[in-house]
Specification:
By secondary structure, this protein is α/β, with parallel strands linked by helices. It has nine helices and seven strands. The strands form two sheets. It has a four-stranded mixed beta sheet with strand order 1-2-3-4. A three-stranded mixed beta sheet has the order 5-6-7.
Length: 183
């Protein structure tokens, strides 16, 4: 039988409640992850925050721009876009940047003007911790938990709410791909 302790990530990237949303966005981009546990000033686990929370913040604030001005295209150019063209350089939406593009996640974040990303703390957008599991939870129980909660990650805690790790749906998929989980 496979347990959460067998597939969890024990080294966890965290953020504190007083970090601003822009710093969270940078952290998620740098670490190439989609969410992190949130700790208070004393190091106690108090919540989780994800890229979805950042998207919600951006959607609620008209001052937040989701793309850089350099990547914006004229509306007429987009309206005239013919996707039957096989030229990969004709992407008016900017979904596919060439590999040698100078644009990076950090560069795009740096270009954004001051906005709610700079005035909103992680504490304001996080979800209070309620999605926790123990290391001795079976992977089958974990899967039921993730599906029931409609979530992609659970914080793994030990005695006294001590952060022990994080486990994601990707960890479960990795275990399936590795043959550690079978039907």
């Amino acid at each position: 039988m496979l347990y959460v302790r067998d597939i969890m990530q024990p080294k966890v990237v965290t953020v504190t409640t007083d970090a601003v949303a822009r710093d969270l966005a940078r952290l998620l981009a740098d670490e190439q992850i989609s969410g992190v546990p949130v700790l208070d000033a004393g190091g106690t686990l108090v919540g989780v925050v994800s890229s979805t929370d950042l998207v919600r913040l951006a959607a609620e604030d008209s001052d937040v721009q989701l793309v850089t001005s350099a990547m914006r295209r004229d509306e007429d150019e987009i309206a005239d876009f013919d996707d039957s063209d096989d030229d990969p350089g004709s992407d008016p939406y900017g979904f596919f940047l060439p590999e040698d593009t100078p644009a990076t996640d950090q560069a795009m974040l740096a270009e954004l003007p001051e906005s709610e990303l700079d005035r909103t703390t992680v504490e304001e957008i996080m979800t209070p911790v309620s999605f926790t599991v123990r290391p001795d939870t079976t992977v089958a129980e974990l899967c039921e938990f993730l599906v029931r909660g409609r979530i992609h990650r659970a914080v793994v805690i030990e005695d006294r709410q001590q952060l022990a790790g994080i486990v994601t749906s990707a960890d479960v998929l990795r275990a399936v791909a590795d043959g550690r989980i079978t039907s």
